[in-house]
Input
Amino acid sequence: MTTSGRSSLWSGREEWRPTVAHLRASVGAVVLTTIALVWRRPDLLVIASPMAVVTAWSLMTRPGGAPTFEDRLAHPTIREGDATTWHGDVSGEPMLDVAVAAVTPSAWVETRPSSGVATAAAIDGTARLAVDLRSIRWGTRAIEPVDVLAATPWGAFRWHTHTARHPLTTLPLPGVFDVNASARPSDGLVGLHRSARNGEGNEFSGIRPFQVGDRMRRINWARSARSGELQVNATRADLDTHIALVIDASDDFGVSEGIDGLASSLDASVRAAGAIAEHYAPRGERVSLRAFGTRIAHTVAPGSGRAQLRRILDTLAQVRPGDPGRSGYRTPASRQRGVIGGQITVMLSPLVAPDALDLAVSLGRQGMTVIVVDTLPAHVSEDDDEYTALAWRIRLLERRREVRLVLTAGIPVIEWRGPGSLDQVIRDIARRSTGPRMVQR
Amino acid sequence: MNAGQLQQWLDQLAMVSAQRWAFVALAVVSATGAFTTAAVVGGDQVGFVLVFVVGLAVAAAIRPDSHTALVLETVVVWQWLAGTDDVTNPAVLVVASGMFGFHTVIALMAVTPSSAVVDRVVVWRWLRRCGWVLIATGAMWLVVVVMVDRRAPGNALLSSLALLTLAAFALAIRALSAPAGERSRP
Output
């Protein structure tokens, strides 16, 4: 019930200063003792005695130099829903009694204690403060400066400082995702999938005569002995899949309540992209990422493995929705055409702006395999304002027609449903890839 | 006050911790208890002034870093001084304890924001200290009673000396009970 809010918690510079409480005790002790002596009222000495003791105690524990303060964030990078701890140590002043830290509330960061205020008693002149921080939404944000106060016994002297901002990166927590269908092979020469062509791999395809360049370990000695000439085991090449993830970050529709509540369109896109990347990249598949509609281009070149997954999640955490009112500041979808070239291009978009559908159709006409994942949340059309709700219903009807046109163009549009979302589509694509294709150039 | 400010004020009120409310209640009870005791001993009507004291106590609890608490303590002391002539009245212990409790709670509230829950170790540490101070206060009252009973001349001066002795005694106890790190400094 102090006082004002958290922004102007304590005033003062980084030096020990006597408090109003110390002044009150001192004045009370001196004035009451003086009155007692002058008016011969020893009972006032009884009233003055607690103040006198407190004043004397406070003066005996008067601090010397400024204390040392160090703070740190235990983990600067965490996943959505995970927690880290802010630690602050006040030390170097033997008279230190209590230390208080108040974390300024930040969006999408929950604290424990819920007030964001921690208190600690000093032991041997050192007070250790800790506040748990739980990030509930992906993104890069800063932990605002923490107000720190140290006080001597009876709160007689206090010292105040505030920390610098600590950057906290929250990686998206990928939704549960799995896919059983195998994509058609690509033109690469590494990976998990069997190629239609022979080459260096593990999958046995036949026995053929030795050719210059064949490895010695490929020689089938038993067959060679029987036939009288060198024979080698031929294998099919192992190939990988290149999944190109394309995120439409032009806008963020719907309400975002963090990891524990409703998800906005960008939440769904980012988490779905993270899930797909987490499924494919550690298995050795190549995954790339590109976000369009943002003010800053976010791109991750194709790669595989855990390091690639981390790169993608780091990049996803930096995605910010673009400003729809200032399209000049956004990375237009049209610029993406030359750089998206995955074996399978997965576009994650709420499909409200026409850019994403245009891009999908354009890529499809270039002969690329495109899957559009609709990430528009269901709650987006719910609005207290009846006109806004009506506008949303009209826009959704238009959007349904646009999606139908895209489907007619041969581009699948699916809703994100977590595990198995892409199974049927990938099976269809694999089956379709075996037949002839028409490409418009 | 417009709607936005009112909402902000209500939000801040909702963030106040239960412990803080307990501190506020303790501060108000201590102050009003001290004042009421002084008024009752003096045989005065306490109605209007008591409302004023409660208002001051609440204001001091809301803004513990202000001088409102000093004004309240002045009112209580004035009430005691004006209404009581019996210098050995044991009610002075209630008044002294009430004022001291009020001062201590306000001092503790001043170093923490309203939403804070003060660590239990800190609260116990402050309570222990309060215990020592209250013992010293009781001893001081005994000194006053003994000196008044014996009609010792110049008792005010001697009482002051006794007060200083008690303060030194309390500090010595505190120094002996403090951790090694604290003892290393004067």
In short: Chain A has eight helices and 20 strands. Chain A has four domains: 19-60, 68-171, 204-237, 242-433. Confidence is low (pLDDT under 50) at residues 1-8, 185-189, 325-330 of chain A.
